[in-house]
Amino acid sequence: MMAGLAIVWSQRDLVLSGFYNTVLLTLACLAISLPLGVLGAVFLLEAPNRLRRICAAFVDLLRCVPFLLLAYVVYYGLPELGLRFEAWGAGLITLVIYNTAYLIEIFRSAGMVLPREELEAARAFGLTTPLIYRRIVLPQIALSAAPVVGNQVIVMIKDSALLMIITVQELTFAANFLSTNYFTPFAPFAVAMLLYWSLCLIVELVVGRLIRLRRSRHG
Amino acid sequence: MTLAAFLTLITGALTTAALSFSGIAMGVPLGLVLALVRWLRVPLLSAVVAVYVSLVRATPIVTFALFIFFVLPSFGIELAPVPAAILTLTLNTAAFNCEIWRGALEIFPRDQIEAARAHGMTTPLLFRRIILPQLWRSSIGPLTSEMTILLKGTPAVAVIGVVEITRAASRIGAETYRPLPPFLTAAVIYTLLIVVIVAGQRLVERRIARLYGYAV
Amino acid sequence: MDDQTLPAVSASRICKQFNGIEILRDVSLEVQTSETVCVIGPSGSGKSTFLRCLNWLEVPDSGAVRIGGRPFGVVPLSGGGTRPMSKTELAAARTRISMVFQHFALWPHLTVLGNVVEAPIHVLKRPRAEALEEGRRLLDRVGLGHKADVFPHTLSGGQKQRVAISRALAMRPEVLLFDEPTSALDPEMVGEVLAVIRDLAAEGMTMIVVTHEMGFAREAADRIVFIDGGQIIEVGEPEAFFERPATERARRFIARYMK
Fold it and tell me: Which residues form the ABC transmembrane type-1 domain (chain B) (predicted)?
């Protein structure tokens, strides 16, 4: 086991670059899918009935499909339609599509539970719909949805590991590479698991901060 | 897509269903055992379970599958891909189920427990006769959600060579150079599987609500 | 040891603290067989804690409890001194002293009859048929025979509490403890529950009732125990206690409640 650790240490650049890719994919995905999720949720809350039902069904359908299948569709399937991406790009697109579907649902349900009177009061004061969203709805959703979004981020980090199968060189890819090339499976995977664990703990820490912030503001 | 390809997909779907079912059938009770260790605050073991649950919940299934498949042999345990996949899924879902069971145990009404104690029940009897019959009813929603998550997580075991539905679809796609039809068929089959699970949950919940008058 | 002359319940010098706050200080009480004792006092006075110390739902920090002359919660050692009862011993001891809770604490997954026979069958190992027959009789007695096969959620609060009383009686306990049995009830349901307790008193059941119902306490109790600030302030016959309380604290308490 010590020998394995020594190998991991000697190949730390590889492990770190895998870790870096995992973090980068997660952050890039968040940067894109958070705003998309909010827009999607607002759309689902405000769009005319017919359109809304079609979009809701589409979001629900996406949530029934496993992540890896979607990754295959994007990486192997879309070229059939003339859309071709590098593995990394295909991975990011998959992450974004998949997570946006979940985030839309998260923000939508958070928006649904806002007190009616609050919104009616805002309308009574003459606030327009965009203004209501910007000033009243979104700031509250941002805090109240934080724990669920945090869970989703953890799911996202773990889903990104599946991208190794379409050859994205993230953390699990690196661990698997070391394991097969140096015939020492324990240390690389154990280190990868510890790194995933620490990422999740960091997310939980941030969520914990947000929850405390919310308590101090809204009781 | 040919008939042969479609049959391959169906076989893959059956594999997916069988893997998930095995994982659930073992992971749900195992999760309950882990939750009890935590709930009863068994010294030392309780801390071990806490660490295990936290670590496994944070580990991607694909990483965990590789770990189990490649690391166990160095401890002298050789597992074929399918048993290794089932072990992975079981250990993974058990960690999540542990938290579900534990959550339900923590909020179990204290007064019912006290009434049982006041009527002379020992802890095993209290658990078997009073807590368990209510616990599974109140956990059925979260447990079902976890089942659908596990079902969606099974493609990860393709990495250790198990041909489940996603892997089958990608093979067909590679052979026919037309990957979209098998992928979309697989997506439809997946959706059907999940609809079946969720419908089953609704059915059970409605029966419970009608019979005992508490919504779950 | 179960001599007629021994008190049914004897608590001596019970002390209990929660997080460094003293809840009970040196509380001693003896209750004779067939006696009904009502424990009254302001909220937070420690009266419920005292009741819960009698069947070890709260373990006293010090002091001793005897039920029918036998030590409860601890086992005397041959060389003197005591050791705490094991969980199994404690469970067995608790079958001799049953309890009715403020919030009924019925088990919602069992029918009304199921609630009543659960412990007799599974704890006392009584034959099923016998337990069911006695369970039905006990439900008839509290006027709920026709509800035997429904689930608790369909019952009113008063009905639930009467089921809880049947459930406690099914243990054939030596002593029955009531922890504010009517406090969680709508006013119109208080009477039906108190009527059942009154009947039990008349039949000679040994009972300790923590209650806020002064009228009931005055009429049904053999003795009143007034607890305030974690101590027994006054003990007396109902008539004397309510008409001529000996202490200033009891006088003020009664004056406030009788208004």
Answer: 13-201
Can you give the pLDDT at residue C138? 96
Q: Which amino acid, A98? A: Y
pLDDT class of B43 with cuts at 50, 70, 90: very high
Residue C255, both tokens: 């004056």
The bridge status of strand C21-31 relative to strand C175-179 is unpaired
DSSP state of B126: I
Q: Which tens digit of pLDDT belongs to each residue from B115-143?
A: 999 999 999 999 999 999 999 888 988 99
Nearest to A80 among B55, B153, B179 (CB): B179
For domain B3-212, the question of CATH label 3.30.450.20 is answered with no
Q: Which residues of B129-168 are buried (b: 16+ CB within 10 A; e: fewer)?
A: bbbeebbbbbbbebbbebbbbbbbbbbbbbbbebbbbbbb
Residue type for C155, please?
L
A175 with B156: Cβ contact below 8 A: no
**pLDDT over 90 (residue C23):** yes
> Please, which chains are in contact with A (at least 3 CB pairs closer than 8 A)?
B
Closest chain C residue to the Cα of B132, Cα to Cα: C109
Q: Determine contact: C183 vs chain B, CB below 8 A.
A: no
Q: Spell out which residues of chain A touch residue B64, defining contact as CB-CB under 8 Å.
A: 193
Element holding C18 (H helix, E strand): strand C9-18
Domain boundaries, chain B: 3-212
Taking the Cβ of residue B207 and every Cβ of chain C, the question of whether any pair is shorter than 8 Å is answered with: no
